[in-house]
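User: Just a sanity check before I run the rest of the batch. Below are the structure tokens for the first item. I only need the designed sequence back.
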């Protein structure tokens, strides 16, 4: 089935296929169908037909049962799914298992919100007159295009599919061509759980073909996209022709600010986590580090020691903490940033290339540059790899100015023992997410998204459900005489 498209509840053979590469070896281990624009049209037709059928009128509680069933089946297959995620993406197996656990948790969270949605329908609005009564209803927006990235393949699918289904929408899911495998498994799981035909369709293929057609399709009511800023602009442009509702979760160049009173050992652990987790292939990675000059040397030495101890290897090898980058193209992108920084004379603290003896596969060392100029592309542009750029500061105002001087505004982290300063800095950062004395914790219950070029809208929490709901006002006249309210006011 993995070389087929899942459309209208059926596995359909495509024409051409795409290779699926294991990043640890650089070798093909599977193939998937390369969906065309015509395949997208068929999938959108199926989703539109399913939305117009009984699915649109299902209760939130009925949809909740299906979402719980999907979560149960994910949990039952966690070992298989996690291993598939490793072979597809390269991440260490323990990380992949956490991702799959979070995937099931996301479906359960939105199952609970779906069940509560029934009780919110027809809620009365408080009006300034008794002549009228007004109520609000929440209705699914329609057939949705869900386009997801390669860094958290199944989890990113859940972030979109779960709230869309909870709301009563139908979906066409287009995974990244680099990591399509678990999206296809999700289709099989949804079918086994009893999801009606056409409610979830999965089309694998190239973004420039399948993704573009999906985002521009006139019968798609909502586009939800996660990926790069460049791709996000293309999706926005494609969707603009029919003025679709759109959500974009894009890139970041997040800053971590370390003040002089911070717990140094805790800082080292969280900074390492913030940039080297998932090989740094994280949109919210705290890839810019601002350290107070009084503790900079001490922290940098500890970071160098710990970075050089990180075990690299295949994600399936026990003990691996840093796997390969996702593809040859991504490896070359990261290497390009590093090579240009070295050519520009920026000081390299550690790393900077492929590990000795690991030339097979897409491995790259944990890398730290220090005293990086603010004008450098290394400081300003998203590398999306295990590369940390460091600067020093000597005042809170300088740290805030440097942190906010970015085209992105997704996330930031602040480290200090001073609670007042933590709150003051958090409120002054121009980002959508602020972590205090930590980096990267993510919860299905909390909003996710950023400002500036980091995207449009918020995912997760009740905000994620609202993305797929249209709000309808129903107002009725409750007086016995038409126009009496108007005449009385004359």
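Assistant: Here's the designed sequence for the first item:
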């Amino acid at each position: 089935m993995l070389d087929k498209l899942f459309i209208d509840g059926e596995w359909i053979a495509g024409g051409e296929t795409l290779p699926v590469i294991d990043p640890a070896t650089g070798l093909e281990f599977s193939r998937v169908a390369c969906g065309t624009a015509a395949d997208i049209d068929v999938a959108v037709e199926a989703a539109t037909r399913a939305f117009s059928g009984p699915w649109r009128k299902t209760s939130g509680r009925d949809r909740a049962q299906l979402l719980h069933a999907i979560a149960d089946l994910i949990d039952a297959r966690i070992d298989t799914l996690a291993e598939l995620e490793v072979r597809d993406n390269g991440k260490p197996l323990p990380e992949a298992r956490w991702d799959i656990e979070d995937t099931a948790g996301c479906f359960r969270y939105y199952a609970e919100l779906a069940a509560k949605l029934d009780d919110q329908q027809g809620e009365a609005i408080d009006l300034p007159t008794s002549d009228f009564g007004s109520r609000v209803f929440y209705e699914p927006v329609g057939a949705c295009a869900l386009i997801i990235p390669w860094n958290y393949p199944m989890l990113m699918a859940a972030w979109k599919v779960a709230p869309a289904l909870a709301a009563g929408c139908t979906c066409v899911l287009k995974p990244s061509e680099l990591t399509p495998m678990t999206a296809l498994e999700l289709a099989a799981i949804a079918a086994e759980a009893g999801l009606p035909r056409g409610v979830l369709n999965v089309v694998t293929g190239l973004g420039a073909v399948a993704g573009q057609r999906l985002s521009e399709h006139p019968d798609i009511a909502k586009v939800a996209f996660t990926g790069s800023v460049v791709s996000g602009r293309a999706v926005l442009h494609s969707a603009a022709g029919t003025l679709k509702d759109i959500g974009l979760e894009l890139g970041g160049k997040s800053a971590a600010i370390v003040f002089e009173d911070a717990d140094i050992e805790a800082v080292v652990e969280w900074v390492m986590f913030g940039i080297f987790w998932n090989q740094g292939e994280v949109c919210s990675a705290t890839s810019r580090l601002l350290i107070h000059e009084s503790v900079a040397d001490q922290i940098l030495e500890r970071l160098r020691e710990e970075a050089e101890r990180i075990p690299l290897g295949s994600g399936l090898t026990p003990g691996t903490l840093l796997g390969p980058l996702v593809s040859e193209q991504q490896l070359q992108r990261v290497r390009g940033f590093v090579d240009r920084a070295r050519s520009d004379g920026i000081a390299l603290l550690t790393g900077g290339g492929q590990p000795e003896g690991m030339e097979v596969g897409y491995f790259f060392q944990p890398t730290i540059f220090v005293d990086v100029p603010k004008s450098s592309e290394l400081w300003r542009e998203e590398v999306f790899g295990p590369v940390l750029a460091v600067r020093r500061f000597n005042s809170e105002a300088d740290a805030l100015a440097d942190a906010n001087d970015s085209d992105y505004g997704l996330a930031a982290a602040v480290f200090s023992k001073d609670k007042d300063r933590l709150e003051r800095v958090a409120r002054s950062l121009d980002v959508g997410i602020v972590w205090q004395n930590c980096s990267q914790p993510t919860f299905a219950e909390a909003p996710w998204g950023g400002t500036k070029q980091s995207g449009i809208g918020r995912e997760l929490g009740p905000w994620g459900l609202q993305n797929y709901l249209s709000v309808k006002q129903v107002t009725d006249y409750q007086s016995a005489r038409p126009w009496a309210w108007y005449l009385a006011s004359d």
